[in-house]
User: What shape does this take?
Amino acid sequence: MSDWVRVCDLDSLKPGELMDFDIDDKKILLVNIKNTIYATDRICTHAYADLSMGFLNEEEKSVTCPLHMSAFNLNDGRPLNLPAEEPLTVYKTKIDNNSVFILV
Ligand code: FES
Assistant: This one.
């Protein structure tokens, strides 16, 4: 069963910023691009790297892994280049009353 979980105030995740958030055993990456919030798993699918330490490309809507530089599409989680081959899990998000929620 999925539930909406409040993760932060929108004010604390500014446009162009990455944020990490843990829910139980899930490690989540949150990204704000022009006040659209994206949420994916935070650990790279290639090896163990934390994507909140990665590089955001706002035009491409992707985040690049800091370890071996695979980029992942934030809309659907698919890798855009090797060495990663498996997609990240993506989560629905919503903003309500200045609070950011994700569906997990
Ligand atoms: S750990 Fe992310 S591309 Fe290798």
